[in-house]
Design brief:
Number of strands: 8
Largest sheet: 8 strands, mixed
Structural class: alpha/beta
Number of helices: 12
Strand content: 5-15%
Distance between the termini: 56 Å
Helix content: 40-55%
């Protein structure tokens, strides 16, 4: 086999493993290794919800109303909003609820410092035994908090992730919706087998004593649950605890969001490899490499597959010529799906565009990290017409 073939087919094999081989292995191992089920019960611990907000005047009122309306004893549930240097009416709105209800508190960062810094400020101020972390634009089903805390009846559980469902999963958002359903299926398999690695940022909970401050550039919904996992606790999925969000609304805004998250995730995950190995968490290490790290750097393997196939053409390799043509067709479909008007995007174009966007975002994120362009702050993505 030529060097071009090794590069191209090797890159393809890694991509196929990350997307299909790993989930299949999870399923196979799950049929053999059956750990004791999590004992979830209807419990009512004290709960504090904590969220970071930057210029969220359009949604913060609805979020607070949604929190106060949860089917949970009012005396056991409160909310902390950490304003991350908001310059709109966010603080004014939150302050009004704080004065009227006594169940809402407003805290501040020193300026615009990012979500992780805001959580480092808010969580230590929580009164609840369980801290629920969420986003300003995430709307919970009425029983979501009660469902989310139920697995904590089992002392082995340190963190619980709820399930995010997208609203507006049509048009360009449909690609994200399909990808998210795939991700949720993988997470359910991980949860049944052993443990999740991270959580859905719009709805997850952790025992307050297990919270550890995170670096400003860390991806908090991965780093916070993962720390509990390293300390010997399980991180489980509770699919009946549901939160709703709108999709980003355009492929461009979703691309920018993924670049930002991936650029922060890559160095964080690399830094976690050695601590995970040292603690002997080999199953967790396999999950970290297979599900997370390979996905974050997948853009590199797409480039290798493309470069190897192009090199193979110069060597007269027919199989690589066909492979290059298949790649070109996929990328062309994605480009068409990106640039044509929304109403003209048939389902295959939408899915190809989203797939290509993820690969491109991965390559851009790696470049951003290597060139030192990673930032801790964020700009919430809002779809057109969403609150």
């Amino acid at each position: 086999m030529t060097a071009a073939a090794i590069i191209s087919w090797g890159a393809l094999a890694i991509l196929l493993y990350a997307y299909f081989g790993y989930p299949l292995l999870l399923a196979l191992i799950g049929t053999v290794r059956r750990p004791r089920p999590i004992a979830a019960h209807d419990i009512r611990p004290t709960v504090t919800m904590v969220l970071a907000a930057w210029n969220e005047e359009a949604v913060i009122g609805e979020k607070i109303e949604n929190t106060l309306a949860q089917e949970y004893p009012p005396g056991l549930l409160d909310l902390i909003v950490v304003s991350d240097g908001s310059t709109d009416k966010t603080d004014e709105i939150v302050r009004g609820y704080a004065e009227r209800t006594g169940r809402v508190r407003l805290l501040h960062t020193r300026g615009r410092e990012g979500k992780s810094v805001a959580l480092n400020i808010g969580v230590p101020q929580a009164r609840g035994e369980i801290v629920v972390l969420t986003d300003a634009n995430a709307i919970f089903q009425p029983e979501a908090v009660a469902r989310l805390v139920a697995p904590f009846a089992d002392s082995r559980v340190g963190a619980v992730s709820g399930q995010l469902r997208y609203r507006g999963a049509e048009g360009i958002g449909e690609g994200e919706g399909v990808y998210w359903k795939y991700e949720q299926a993988v997470k359910r398999a991980e949860s049944r087998l052993h443990s999740l690695l991270g959580a859905n940022g719009s709805i997850y909970a952790i025992r307050r004593e297990l919270f550890r401050p995170v670096h400003p550039r860390d991806v908090n919904d991965f780093r916070i649950p993962y720390q509990a996992l390293l300390e010997g606790q399980a991180v489980v999925l509770e699919p009946e605890a549901v939160s709703f969000e709108h999709t980003a609304g355009s492929l461009g805004s979703e691309y920018r969001r993924k670049v930002r998250i991936m650029a922060r995730a890559i160095p964080m995950m690399l830094a976690l490899l050695l601590p995970t190995l040292v603690r002997g968490r080999l199953l967790v290490l396999w999950q970290l490499l297979s599900h997370k790290l390979l996905r974050e750097v997948q853009g590199v393997f797409f480039l290798f597959a493309l470069a190897g196939a192009a090199w193979g053409i110069t060597r007269g390799d027919l199989s690589l010529t066909v492979f290059l043509g298949a790649q070109a067709a996929l990328y062309l479909l994605g480009i068409i799906g990106w640039v044509v008007p929304p109403r003209a995007r048939v389902r295959p174009l939408r899915l190809a565009a989203h797939f290509d966007m993820i690969a491109l975002a991965s390559a851009a994120a790696l470049w951003l990290w290597l060139t030192g362009g990673v930032r801790a702050t964020w700009t919430p993505a809002r779809p057109a017409g969403a609150p």
